[in-house]
Amino acid sequence: MKDLVGIKEIEKSDIERILNTASSFKDVLKRDIKKVPALRGKTVVNLFFEPSTRTKTSFELAEKRMSMDVLNFSVPTSSVVKGESLLDTVRTIEAYGVDFIVIRHSSSGAPHFIARNVNASVISGGDGINEHPTQALLDAFSIIEKKGRLEGLKIAIVGDILHSRVAKSNIYCLAKLGAKVRLIGPPTLIPMDLPEGVTVFHDMDEGIKDTDVIMMLRIQMERQGKGFFPSTGEYSMLYGLNINRLGLAKKDAIVMHPGPMNRGIEISSEVADCQQSVILEQVTNGIAVRMAVMYLLSGMQENE
Amino acid sequence: MNNSILIKNGHIIDPSQGIDRIGDILIEGGKIAEIRTQSIEHRTQIKNTKLKTQNSELKTIDASGLYVIPGLVDMHTHLREPGFEHKETIKTGTMAAVKGGITSVCCMPNTNPVNDNETVTEFILRKASAEGVCYIYPIGAITKGEKGEELAEMGKMYEAGCVAFSDDGKSVMNSLIMRRSLEYSKIFNVPIISHCEDIHLVDDGVMNEGKFSTLLGLRGIPSASEEAIVARDIILSKLAGGRLHIAHVSTEGSVKLIRQAKERGVNVTAETCPHYFSITEKAVEGYNTNAKINPPLRTERDVEAIKEGLKDGTIDVIATDHAPHHRDEKLLEFDRAPFGISGFETSISLSLQLVHDGILSMPELIEKMTLNPAKILRINKGALEAGSDADMSLMDIKREYKVEPDKFISKGKNTPFDGWTLKGMPVITICKGKIFDYRG
């Protein structure tokens, strides 16, 4: 495995290895000195073709904790605005001698396209409406941390599944690890021909009944005008998570959200800040998981 | 040019005359002088009598083991000139066509400028006679600028040489304009070729909507976007008359709609392209931009329905929709790459697979690639009759070869069939009195 472009492309054993390794790095993050020399001398470039605060920060911090040399490349300051093709941009960057390329791009498949054309390890930081693999890994890590396992858990993913790369990666990741995935959302925002074993609910109350985990997705305001749902108010009424609805899930159910949240729309403040919410822990775990991914891919580089 | 060519012992197929047997063809001055499918004595006679009367050199081609068919008529292509000469030119496009056994091509109007007036039509035809190695029949735009808003000057373009009208690349979304175009085209008795795609349902989609679009996280184009317009246009042609021709049929639903329409006596014809009966949406896996095409590659079920439609005559024509693009344009993120497949140099081989698989007989296949398009376009092509232009192709239908895009004559190397082994190819094409020999 040279790259991590998606969860679809990796095996259950790869996921387990990443999660186990992340657990050791989480211990590192609890120390007073949070830095390890594991990847000293390695160079990484963070190529963000889409605005991102948390994913980019999380990757950058993970890279620094691993003692890597970090380059940041963002669109407004790059030659992309001058009309350079993605491939030329990436080949130029590779010529600087980078070992890792972290990429976020609005086109689905952009990381796969780059991975095929460069020798450096490519890690997806989210591509179009396809996948966001490190988010799914950190979500799985967070669930296991709270619940001790994933096998057999009932997990609801609520919201705009169609356009959510977080949802897609989670569907593949959770299914590979043996969880029972339910998707909840309006029919306009659920894709066709879903993988086997995934169940779909359009009635949220029914869908979250007896679940162990509820993953809320951010609703994009711009979907409103495109006919996916009539208004955020109505969306919130039908698919927003409030305290009453949360009561339908198991007593010890946990609530997750990849951020940034629209408080009062897909999630009420009461829920976001309640005991069952693990939203901030997800953020911390993101660093450990990303450290693990780079560490393991680097090991693969050495072996080749 | 004035030299005579005798093609001996080939298996002649000409659906226009129902010929399907071994015979000889004598060509003189670029025209078919005589066809004999009789006994050996008769054939000897052609040689002797003709040679006595003509004082020119006779070139004999031994076509034993080969099929001799009328030059293929490809009614749906993009030659890209004027405006996109980096993708293809009239010269390179026609050279590639001839390599594929094609001797007459219709070029779609989505050039730059759009072929929506007689000046552009005249430019194309002038270029065609100067640089084209095969015959070119331009297709004019239905609406000015292919904008779907007001009718282009069909009459002037018809006078200049356009044989059909189409806004290929998009649908005429305004149903009233589409109705008017069908009505108006009756003056010239020319087909209106409809690219069926409801642009609102496409909604920035880049591949077929279904299992694979979900799996790849790519925006889907539902079959309904094609079928809704196929249905609409059939209904409009009942109202308005005219000669509706449905371009590049890709879905099971479209085949059914066209079949029903024909049963009810609607004046509609239809074409499909080799990729729609050869591969499915699965070819997009790995974000292969060379499998990005519009309409998109569909499912196994659609492929079967297309084959069924070809077999029962619902689909009249196989055309390439040759859509060459520059390599750099396809070496992009999937959703940024343009739609299209370079089709000239694989079309007949992929189509011959229908014969190998027993779906069509050789004459049935050749009819869909010669006589039927020529009839729809009302051009005097696609037949091997004495006195007609000597456009023909000699096919070795058993010869296997590997598809190597780098060896394409077309500037467009964009094919999803890279590395495939195909069975059957033209070994010689004769067009405009010239012999193109690919046996080397």
What do you see in this structure?
- The complex is a heterodimer of chains A (304) and B (440).
- Chain A is an alpha/beta fold.
- Chain A has 2 domains: 12-130 and 283-303, Rossmann fold; 133-282, Aspartate/ornithine carbamoyltransferase (Rossmann fold, 3-Layer(aba) Sandwich).
- In chain A, 40% of the residues lie in helices and 15% in strands.
- Chain A has 11 helices and 9 strands.
- In chain A, the strands form 2 sheets. A 5-stranded parallel beta sheet of chain A has the order 7-6-5-8-9. In chain A, strands 2-1-3-4 form a 4-stranded parallel beta sheet, sandwiched between helices.
- In chain A, helix 2 (54-65) links the parallel strand 1 (43-48) and strand 2.
- In chain A, helix 5 packs across helix 6 (165-176).
- The N and C termini of chain A lie close together (10 Å).
- The mean pLDDT of chain A is 93.
- Chain B has 440 residues and is α/β, with parallel strands linked by helices.
- Chain B has 2 domains: 4-68 and 388-409 and 417-437, Urease, subunit C, domain 1 (Roll), CATH 2.30.40.10; 72-377, Metal-dependent hydrolases (TIM Barrel, Alpha-Beta Barrel), CATH 3.20.20.
- Chain B is built from 15 helices and 18 strands.
- In chain B, the strands form 3 sheets. In chain B, strands 1, 2, 3, 4, 5, 16, 17 and 18 form an 8-stranded mixed beta sheet that branches. An 8-stranded parallel beta sheet of chain B has the order 6-7-8-9-10-13-14-15, sandwiched between helices.
- In chain B, a hairpin with a 4-residue loop joins strand 1 (4-14) and strand 2 (19-28).
- Chain B is globular and about 60 Å long.
- Chain B starts with a strand and ends with a strand.
